[in-house]
Amino acid sequence: MRVNIEINGERHTADDVWPGESLLYVLRERLGLPGSKNACEQGECGSCTVYLDDTPVCACLVAAGQAEGRSVRTVEGLGTEDELDPVQEAFVRTGAVQCGFCTPGLIVAAHELVHRSPDATDAEIREALAGNLCRCTGYEKILDAVRLAAKGVQR
Amino acid sequence: MSAPTRQGGLTSTGTGGVGDSPQRPDANLKVRGEFAYSSDLWHEDMLWGATLRSPHPHARIRGLDTSAALAVPGVYAVLTHEDVPGENIYGLEHPDQPVLAADVVRYQGEPIAIVAADHPETARRAAARVRVDYEVLDPVTDAAAALRADAPVLHPHNPGGNLVRHARIRHGSGPLTADVVVTGEYTVGMQDQAFLGPESGMAVPAEDGGLDLYIATQWLHADRRQIARALGMDEEKVRLHLAGVGGAFGAREDLSMQVHACLLALRTGKPVKIVYGREESFFGHVHRHPAVLRYEHGATRDGDLVYVRASMILDGGAYASTTAAVTGNAATLGAGPYQAPTVEIDCYGVYTNNPPCGAMRGFGAVQACFAYESQMDKLAQALGMSPVDVRVRNAVEQGSVMPTGQVVDSAAPVGELLALVRDRPLPPERGATFDLRELPGGVSNTTHGEGVVRGVGYGVGIKNVAFSEGFDDYSTARVRLEVTGGEPVVSVHTAAAEVGQGLVTLKAQIARTELGVARVVILPSDTAVGSAGSSSASRQSYVTGGAVRAACERVRADVLALAGGAAAGLAGGKVVDGAGVVLADLVEVLGEAVVEHTVEWRHRPTEALDPVTGQGFAHVQYAFAAHRAVVDVDVELGLVRVVELACAQDVGRAMNPDAVVGQIQGGSAQGLGLAVMEEIQVVGGVVRNPSFTDYLIPTVLDMPPMPIDVLERADPHAPYGLRGVGEPPTLSSTPAIVAAIRAATGKALTRVPVRPEHIVGD
Ligand code: FES
Ligand code: FES
Asked: B759, B461, B498: which is closest to B639 by C-alpha?
């Protein structure tokens, strides 16, 4: 089947999509956007988090066909050529990135959180990011990153 | 054939040298989603590989029929053991594992056939159509039973039967009696490394009949040796390139899909990509050895250890992997960071039909640490002493003699680390108003504080750094200095695997410190340069760091010779004299010259253990960390919330202070996982929970604040005085948390992970 999706502001078309393919597979393997990650493909880790319209979703749990005609924003679409998005910048500055495999999904989830709720408490940040696993950092520096990014948004 | 899209070199600019915390050179790419991990590789002509695995933990293969799989449209190749051109056997230390099973399968998930197809789903479906005629055999699932004379022998060629290694330590000749004696039997469940980036890579056939493999691994050259042997090919024709690695923690030290992708690429003449899903990943790599450990500690009434006896059985599963080395570690470090005049330890690494076990962060020292620290708490209780006091009283220090007879010949501030975590202010008690999320059970709303008891516990551990027991442990670095674009530029080329730990940052810091240059290019790691050894055993800062520094020193000597006169050093892009006065611009001194050196660098040699007494200078360096855990336990429901997990660690020299803290926090988190949640549940040799739905790793809700104290007591034998950082925090975190749960509940808790039923049961 053919799937048309607006991704990061551009129209994309994927042909010969097998109906069982996820949005994540189509992004990564058909449209050249491997930034969203594939740590579990079971909906458990959040590494594949993207915006579908304005809602963060696990792209591995969305069938490609469900994204037909809708708009998707991935980690590749947050910053510009020259500049990182402030959330990306905060992850770099706080040392929240080790292997980085969790990072794209966490950045999208954190991006949504700090825009929805820039004055989130620590407990609220933890709850909002509870669906995003990281195996490397123990989350301390990720929390630092989100606090820093939230401060930026508040300003 | 062209290379797939992949990660190129990384450029690091600025001023960050050794002791600073410059930004990772790969951080921008990683936050943008542009860093090319091994599962991101793409080639327009590529095929996808899939693996058929045994559903049985033990079976004879009576027949194999691939015809139905080959008939699936879109399938290019279906291969079995008959298609392995070289030796159908591999292994890190002991080659004992078939690339594809021939006549017998020894664990659930053992690969039997591989398929290449034009779509991953086609490949998976075709693999499922390979017909295998199994004669199912009884699995050997109990490690102790596997050692009995009547147990079926799983590897007929192994001289020890089902015994992979017995490591034996006999130290001191004092009496095995004491005024105060505590005994215990402890069990450690099977932990998974659970890196997030799945096993994956791409093999690309080359015109010379060889191939290029783009792969996430911990040790390119060890992979290459094993792959070449299985392919029956010269090593030079097997070129490995490190693709982006999404975490490792030991699970990438053994081969997974490497040979399979190469076989399929050579057969089809096309690039072949294999990416495991999460379920397959649980079968695709080794795990932490489950262990049963029996301990006896004897002490005087004043609390001085008189003797330690221990007997441990590590379940190595179906294939040896690194079981022998893990067994050696558990034995040599089995008494912990304590001085005891007399020590008797026997540690057995065993074959069974359970999932193969090998390297995981902590490597044998983790299992022992849970047991000996539980014992120290028991001893403290028997003596009426505080848990910290009994530890400090017996702690090793510089000059102490280990049970192997090895003298601890650099700093060992065990008592100081314990005091640091003990003396931290405790986190405040829960107030009258509180957030549900602060309680065990969280927003499940299982309690409003009733039945919740707080507990505090301590743990300290000892880990060896780098490879031990006489292994020829080295790394290779090529460093080049030249003028590019009017600026002096250093390039650093090693084969060392960046797995997330930050080695790329560190290599640039070292080059900057040694050569006084702002711009450093970290070339991609590959087998075009000599081996760097494994990214494991907390060793790369030490060994590859040492190699990079040594190569820089040679380059610097050449540049100073070029400059002549009073030239004595390089700083800020200038050649300076002994007093730091600028003599010349480095750009001018270099001109058109390219100064390059390749150095193979070794740490001081270690020795094999005496097979009877276990005596010998086995470890090049020891490293120590201590934890204090504070927990809240719902004693009625058995739910635990870790409130705070403080750690103090001696790192010798904090080469990159931010990265050091990141390692300590990440390692502590994995120890928390082992303490309260992480276990691969194996029943009758069958894994019951191969998913992130059922194998739980800590989320941000499970992790508490982790305040860290970093000590820097230089080790004069090590480059810059540094001490390996990655593993020690994984050791002591687990026993500290369990001790805190014991303090809250009064339960014995001799098994990790602690489950609710252990807390609420009798
Ligand atoms: S890959 Fe989608 S949740 Fe893990
Ligand atoms: S940085 Fe490796 S999983 Fe988060």
From this structure: B759
